[in-house]
Structures
1.
Amino acid sequence: MRADAARNLDAVLQTGARLLALDPGTSIAAIAEAAGVDRRTVYRRFTTREALMAAVYTAKLDACEKVLAQARLEEAPVAVALHRYAEGIITVSRRWPVDLQQVQEAAASDRLRRLIEQLDAFMARAVRDGAVRPGLPDRWARSLLVHLTHIASHEMPELTPAQGADMVTQSLFTGLGPT
């Protein structure tokens, strides 16, 4: 792909992610205009809004998978892996603000399920390693982690990803009580 075509595709995908997160009914024409490209350019690559949406979800899933791999959830110390994960996911979520829970495509849903399973396994490891207390309801720690990273990503834009990861890690491990 030519460099200008790659830039245009990236602009369309990122603009699409931002606009579709705000309004899932956003038209391709509106996305093209906001991305600074001709709508025919978008239609050559994506014949429908659903195809564009699928490409946005794929891009976000690709980025999330990369973050989980780089966090080294299975072998890095729990606190280090958690911080790497949170910092990476905050960055990804800000770049690709669409909600993966809205994925309709079976292959994308399977990828999302595998990511969630990796997080559940990591949180089970955190319990085994003593970083998270045992006896919590199933999926509690992972759900809290997902919600905390969402808050840091979208409700606290003044935080850098590293600061957000600090807050996520501290909140998950020590709660909100005095340190």
Note: The helical segments are 3-22, 28-35, 39-45, 49-71, 78-95, 106-128, 140-155, 161-174.
2.
Amino acid sequence: MDMAPGGIPLASGGEDRDGLEMDLLHLRLGPLLAYWPAGLVLRCTLQGDVIVDAETSLIAADNPTAAGEPRHLREDRRRFAARRCDNAASLLKLAGWDDAASRARRIRDTLLFTDDSDGPAAELHRLRRMVGRSWWLRWSLRRVGPLDAQDLARRGSPATVTGDVRDRLLAMLDRAANSIAGQQPTGPLLGVPVDAIPDLVRGWDLATARLIVASLDLDPLAADREVSHG
């Protein structure tokens, strides 16, 4: 009998947190997945729809820092802002707000393919205000994947990823606006170390875990060889 019909592995038995046996399902996300950091692989063990264990790995890429960006682009601050807008668009799309995601993508494209700065700055200000005022977004993302100062210090992560998913989304848009205004980004672009991601997604359902990963504002990732982190 085929134990992996269609290439999808069947669930196996495992003990739940309350002592009852539940089926375990092993699932891999990435490295190529819509609204997902390029190069990142997350291998999850699920009980029901909850992630009970996870590990990450990176897949090699030829030029990870320039993935999806035109070769003629030379302004680092515009590229930095465009990446933040792209990541914000992914998070908004996963959250179910298609209109806001489309606005973020349009700002990204203007930054990448034109020399206009005033237009993207004004559009980004409007998007930031719209996202900040959204009661629905506040309700749906508040207290999801929270990181406090102690969490960040323990993981060696900068303060740019403090708060919950909503806080990180707003900070993402603020960093894009600051970069357009000419402020050079400071600190590492990778806010959370890859090996910290498994701890962040354990205990959350799969859809929420994707929101958490999207909120980390990661640049495309790569390694010279595949390296795993559990």
Note: The helical segments are 76-95, 98-113, 118-133, 135-141, 149-155, 165-180, 197-201, 206-215.
3.
Amino acid sequence: MAITLTQAAAEHIQRHLEKRGKGLGLRLGVKPSGCSGMSYLLEYVDDQGLDDTIFDQFGARLYVDSGSLPYLQGTELDYAREGLNEGFRFRNPNEKAACGCGESFTV
């Protein structure tokens, strides 16, 4: 199963890389955190890791390390604006529950 980007997410990533003036893409990962156990990690990538899997869609690259990949298989990364709020949205089929504040999840 692949990890996918929506066109809106890909365009947002590309805009921010252009503003930064450097970078290969965006890293998506997970880390232990929060009241439900795990949280998503997003950071811009300047150097590819040895264990990275790369997903390339709509001209944007998403980098996922081998430790995070099992938790993210099948995830769709979207970017949306709703009123004054905007940000990445994760549609992760592995997610069994999320905390009330939306900061962490469990698989």
Note: The beta strands are 4-5, 25-33, 37-45, 52-57, 60-65, 76-82, 85-91, 97-98, 105-106.
4.
Amino acid sequence: MGALREMAAPFVTLGPSGVAVRTRFKHLTSEHEKVLRLVGDLLGTLACRDLKARCAAGLGHDTGHWAERKRALTQEPSSRRAGSATKASRDQWALARRGLLAHIHSLEAGIATITHRLSLPVGEKGSERAPGGCRSRREWHAKARRLHVLADRLERARADWQAGVVHVVRGGKRLLKTRHHLQAAHLTEERWRVRWQAERRFLAADGESGKRYGNETIRVTSDGEVSIKLPAPPAHLPRVVRGGGAHRAASHTRWRRSRP
């Protein structure tokens, strides 16, 4: 019989050293707003294009596909921006995938409950562990119809799961559907479109180890000054600039520690 392994001395691991920055701009001039909107629209368009490519790849996606998507985006913005966009697409696809699985489990649970209730005599009382039968023949008929509806939905959801199909919308499905119910949402078409464009904009960049104030793309100083390096297409625009290709604006910044 072999000897027991010796236990190492206990030690305390270091806490997280990075921070995630969520910032809200204040006191912007019209020129500031124009530049930020144009940059957000440009990068949002590229993010939409990349999300479409990620969804089209489905379950066949691998590191090779990821590298190909990043190279396609790097032709327009920087490599760091392309990396942020591809990671956001990956996370959105994965979130939609988990949501689809949760939807399947919910449908299965609903079908099991209705099937159990339909199998009991009408009016039979339930217990703490299981529901009883339907209270009337009318309710029994309605539940039977509902069972067929849920079964059809479950069949489609399982087919999407097996094929790796997800249904996502940059900007949100709820806001997209609001477009057809503007009066109920107390919105005009113009106000809805402003919100829609704002939700689909993209402006983010991952931090870089060893770089002060974030990275070379988006920098946030301890005084709350944000410096954004403009991508190539809108770099010709008039801007409030100090240094080549960098847009600076004062902001109100909230710092939040990242998870370890």
Note: The longest strand covers residues 246-257.
